[in-house]
Amino acid sequence: MTGLTAELVVDGHAPQTPALAPNGRLLCYVLAPLSRTGDHLDTEVWLTDIDDAAASRRATADTATESRPRWSADSAMLFFLSDRAERGVSQLHRLALADGTVSVLTGWRAGVIDHLPLAHPHLVALLAMDEPTEQDARRARDRDDAVVVGEREPRARLRLLDLRTGQISTPEVFGDRHVVELRQRPDGGPLAVLTRASADNDYGPRTGELHLFDPTTGTAEDLGPVETEARSLAWWPAEDGWHLGYVALTPPVLQAGTAVFDLTLASRALRNRTTGLLMCPTELCQTGAAPLVVFADGLNTTLARLDPTGPTNVSQHSGRLDDLSTTPTGAEIAALTGTRHQPANVHVGPPSGPLRRITDTRPELDGIALGTQQPLAYRADDGLDLDGLLVLPIGQTASDGPFPLITIVHGGPYDRYSDRCQLFWFPSAQWLATAGYAVFLPNPRGGQGHGHQFAASVAGRVGQEEWTDILTGIDLIIAQGIADPDRLGIAGWSHGGFMSAWAVGQTDRFRAALVGAGVIDWGMLAATGENGQFEAALGGSTGWSGIGPHPHDAISPISFASRIRTPVLILHGAEDTNVPLGQSVYLHRALRHFGVEHELVIYPREGHSIRERRHQLDVLRRTRSWFDRWLLP
After folding, report:
1. Domains of the chain by residue range
2. Are strands 209-214 and 219-225 parallel, antiparallel or unpaired?
3. Average of pLDDT values for 462-470?
4. What is the pLDDT of residues 179-217, one digit of tens each?
5. 489: buried, middle or exposed (CB in 10 Å: 19+, 13-18, 0-12)?
6. Which part of the chain is the Peptidase S9 prolyl oligopeptidase catalytic domain (predicted)?
7. 487: enclosing H helix or E strand
8. Helix-helix angle 495-506:465-479, to 10 degrees
9. N or C, which end of the chain has less CB nearby within 10 Å?
10. Which residues are bridge partners to 161 per DSSP?
């Protein structure tokens, strides 16, 4: 078998956003590279006949960023966004399947963010920012561009494109609110419109409201506020009239625990339809009848139907099931899913399964040796059931141990490890297994897949029980003779980076650590990160919570920097607005002050995720080199 290289990891392509045509015979999806080599990520819209997947073809031959494929109601037209005319500014395009012609439908100077072809054959709803005015252009020329926070903030607005005339109108119905999502009623009735008071990630998600908009009359009706971070709108009919649902955070906790909320339009009654479930909804998908719900269910995924009595399980799927699309009747679905040793591809079939693979976007991985991946189930110190994954070195079995063990903690913390292929540009299990490491991927409390209480339990308590959950798993792997207790490493990105920094301040058991874009001071993050209120819920307090010491000081890694003796590799994107670079600089200065061996690596032009090809290659190679230096004999 051929060996895995860093180039094989980052040079592939992945399918995104599959969309089934209403007739159920055609499918489109976006094919995107895993890394970027230039200033823009060049993506492609592909078309596939469900019964002849080998005849797949590109919708265009352009070099562009193509996205958001949507079908017309009669399956004759495919609408999508492309920036082929002006890179970085997307416009709406239409492909006529009859003759293969592609037409540019908009020339909106601010670009189009999203779109929704309506039941009316000549109308498309758009989401787009306001076009720049002459005053804006003059200020830009004169460099009179001082930003007054709160003034002239950009807003996405609902606009209507008339395909007969090419004219775009902007209904004046939602004031100055920021529009984030649209969904038309299945019978061609009004649009459900989700808005926020601001596009600001710190403030906007807590200010959501629902509205109804009639595209034929241009009138709107307010339905009132929604729960925090509402998304994934879906309509369905019932005996008591139309219902409108969405996925949102379960109150009052701001940082975790999603639920499906059901609004009965006639009575305006709102219900949480997933209370008490030991699963977490991730998507709500509209059909002509009861909607489908995707649940993160431990290491795997459950697909359910939202019946009047509650969710009814329809099928179970190994690993993840993402980007669900259905025909109007819900008889067929398309989604992204994979296996332990095969990255996600587009699969289609009935909701009850089985699903068959339609795409094969990573053939270059065929024949590449990967480590054996197996689920782990164990109990925390307080008896809570936990799970995770163990990946063994390539060609090895558990009886060949003990091996050097690297624990990689997931981000979020409201994320999870699922039983899928663990091969990514960031510190990932299969990349390290190639170098002879066993890798532990824990799902401690605070994560997704085990219900609301499991997720919400870390609010104000990060680094406490979730830390002992991780240690318990490590001790189990050592007791089984798989891990060498004298050759332990720990790594993570984002919240996983926090846990890695926290670990080395609590114990000297780890011989090396990697902190990727990690949280070092919760008060500082609440003050400067783009999700400040979310971070404040995790940290338990803010710097303006009166005279300190504050609760977040006791659970911030920087407070324990004087205890760190473990060599630490720190990686961070220079333009990260989620966890700003200052967090890593803070840790670097503390470690320098205390004389701890470490490296700080900053990636220019990068945000919270590393996108450029050379930078991804550097992360992969530097990660292995760092752990090889400290863990290999």
Report:
1. 106-136+152-225, 229-339, 369-631
2. antiparallel
3. 97
4. 999 999 999 999 999 999 999 999 999 999 999 999 999
5. buried
6. 429-631
7. strand 483-493
8. 70
9. C
10. 124, 168
The predicted model scores a pTM of 0.96
The answer to whether 579 and 529 are in contact (CB under 8 A) is yes
Partners of residue 248 on adjacent β-strands: 259
- State which fold the 369-631 domain adopts: Rossmann fold (3.40.50)
Q: Residue 500 belongs to what H/E stretch? A: helix 495-506
> Which phi and psi (to 5°) does residue 573 adopt?
-80, 135
List of residues 6+ apart from 32 with CB closer than 8 A: 13, 14, 15, 16, 41, 43, 44
- 224 to each of 202, 221, 629, how far by Cα in Å? 20, 9, 58
User: How many Å apart are CA 195 and CA 157, to the nearest integer?
Assistant: 9
Residue 307 — pLDDT band, cuts 50, 70, 90?
very high
Q: What is the DSSP string of 557-622?
A: GGGGGGG--S-EEEEEETT-SSS-THHHHHHHHHHHHTT--EEEEEETT--SS--BHHHHHHHHHH
Give the CA radius of gyration of the chain: 25
Instruction: Say which amino acid occupies 613.
Output: R
Rounded to whole angstroms, what are the CA distances from 607 to 7, 160, 436? 21, 33, 31
Q: Which two tokens stand for residue 235?
A: 């309509």
DSSP string, 220-277: EEEEEE--TT-EEEEEEEETTEEEEEEEEEPTT-SSS-EEEEEEETTTTEEEETTTT-
Distance CA 204, CA 198 (A): 5
CA 320, 183, 156: angle at the middle one, nearest 5?
Answer: 100
Say which residues have a Cβ less than 8 Å from residue 434's Cβ, sequence separation at least 6. Answer: 3, 4, 369, 371, 394
> What's the rounded Cα separation, in Å, for the pair 489 and 466?
17
Give the Cα-Cα-Cα angle 362, 603, 497 (nearest 5 degrees): 80
CA distance 127 to 123: 13
Looking at the predicted structure, is the pLDDT value of residue 175 above 80?
A: yes
Average pLDDT over residues 339-358: 96
Q: Determine the pLDDT at residue 152.
A: 79
CB-CB neighbours of 620 under 10 Å: 23
**pLDDT exceeds 70 at position 1:** no
Instruction: List the structure tokens of 445.
Output: 């409390």
Round to whole Å and give the CA distance between 5 and 7. Answer: 5
Question: Does a cis peptide bond (omega within 30 degrees of 0) precede residue 291?
Answer: no
Tell me if 627 sits within 8 A of 597, measured CB to CB.
no
Superfamily of domain 106-136+152-225: Tricorn protease N-terminal domain (2.120.10.60)
Q: How far apart are CA 374 and CA 429, in angstroms?
A: 12
For residue 227, pLDDT over 60 is answered with yes
- 271 neighbors 261 (Cβ within 8 angstroms): yes
Q: What is the DSSP pairing of strand 598-603 with strand 512-516?
A: unpaired
Tell which residue, 598, 603, 597, has the closest CA to residue 620.
603
**Digit-coded pLDDT (tens) for 490-545:** 999 999 999 999 999 999 999 999 999 999 999 999 999 999 999 999 999 999 99
